[in-house]
UniProtKB/TrEMBL annotation:
Listed EC numbers: 1.13.12.19, 1.14.20.7
Family: Belongs to the iron/ascorbate-dependent oxidoreductase family.
The organism of origin for this protein: Pacificispira spongiicola
Top EC class of this enzyme: oxidoreductase
Needed cofactors: Fe(2+)
Gene Ontology MF: a single term: 2-oxoglutarate oxygenase/decarboxylase (ethylene-forming) activity
Keyword Hydrolase found: no
The protein's name: 2-oxoglutarate-dependent ethylene/succinate-forming enzyme
Domain Fe2OG dioxygenase: 149-255
Catalyzed reactions: 2-oxoglutarate + O2 + 2 H(+) = ethene + 3 CO2 + H2O; L-arginine + 2-oxoglutarate + O2 = guanidine + L-glutamate 5-semialdehyde + succinate + CO2
Keywords assigned: Ethylene biosynthesis, Iron, Metal-binding, Oxidoreductase
SUPFAM superfamilies: Clavaminate synthase-like
Pathway where it operates: Alkene biosynthesis; ethylene biosynthesis via 2-oxoglutarate
Length: 282
């Protein structure tokens, strides 16, 4: 029925790097199990941030267009080309940005572990890419993260749905591609994430607790001359009878700003252009 061959990768298996690269090449996505971040730690981070979104303290961390750090209130971002704002609130964690004191140690540690995992995954991609594709990279992929302060951990909360919003055509996250090199998406607390295949059919991405979904972003698609696809994805509204909050945590791995992606763009040129398109920058 489907040729969308999204693989679940046991990170401890000897053929894990090859299977990862195959799944990414075929679908732009892969699901990681047996990775180094424990289910207990993921649950603790979710619990801490759930309490944060439920409190008014979040308004002390309001973001600004200049910083892009901190708290983004409900309905502040739209996907490229969409006028309706997504039905989500979120918090951007950067090394140079604030984190609430009671969550700081845990969140920074979690951030570092996700960056380390991202670097390992970029090494697997680098080592398993054909010679002619590697030749396109301006430097080895894991090295593109060296000295980068642009890696972004986004903590997302999609509140239970207001029927008016659903009626207006707004969705939790409209169809989009990620801007960065690769994304590590710590599995959502409820279903909803879908990826689109080349024919335009949507496929549910599995979200078992503790798993981490990985996907290619536009920067790696660009740097690989299109060899790795930056697959369009979205988060659909909850089904009737399942109208509960959904939480998820994507880590967007970004190169140093000066890294050259192709003849036309450095990472920074590209990021600034894209932020204007999604309404986060004027
Ligand atoms: O919440 C999710 O599962 C996906 C979020 C996402 O795609 C994004 O923030 O770019
Ligand atoms: Fe995304």
């Amino acid at each position: 029925m489907t040729d969308f061959n999204l693989l679940t990768i046991d990170c401890q298996a000897s053929d894990a790097p090859q299977r990862l690269v195959q799944s990414l090449r075929d679908t732009g996505f892969a699901v990681l199990t047996n990775h180094p971040i424990s289910a207990g730690e993921i649950a603790d981070v979710y619990a801490g941030w759930e309490a944060f979104f439920a409190s008014d303290a979040k308004f002390d961390y309001l973001t600004t267009p200049e910083t892009q750090t901190g708290y983004f209130p409900f309905k502040s971002e739209n996907a490229k080309g969409y006028s309706k704002k997504d039905l989500k609130e979120f918090f951007h964690v950067y090394p140079h940005g604030p984190v609430p004191a009671d969550l700081e140690a845990m969140t920074r540690d979690f951030y570092d572990k996700l960056v380390a995992l991202g670097r390992a995954m970029l090494s697997w991609i680098e080592d398993n890419s054909p010679e002619d594709i590697r030749a396109l990279f301006s430097e080895p992929l894991p090295q593109m993260l060296d000295g980068s302060s642009m890696n972004l951990l986004r903590i997302l909360h999609y509140p239970p749905q207001d029927p008016e919003d659903a009626h207006s055509g707004a969705v939790r996250a409209a169809a989009h591609e990620d801007i960065n090199l690769i994304t590590l998406l710590v599995s959502g607390s409820a279903p909803g994430l879908e990826a689109r295949d080349a024919k335009g059919n949507w496929h549910e991405v599995p979200c078992d607790t503790g798993m981490i979904t990985m996907n290619i972003g536009d920067m790696l698609q660009k740097a690989s001359g299109g060899y790795y696809p930056s697959t369009t994805h979205r988060v659909v509204n909850p089904k009737e009878g399942q109208n509960v909050s959904r939480y998820s945590m994507p880590m967007f791995l970004h190169p140093r700003p000066d890294v050259r992606l192709d003849a036309d763009y450095t990472a920074n040129d590209y990021l600034q252009e894209r932020l204007r398109e999604i309404g986060l920058k004027g």
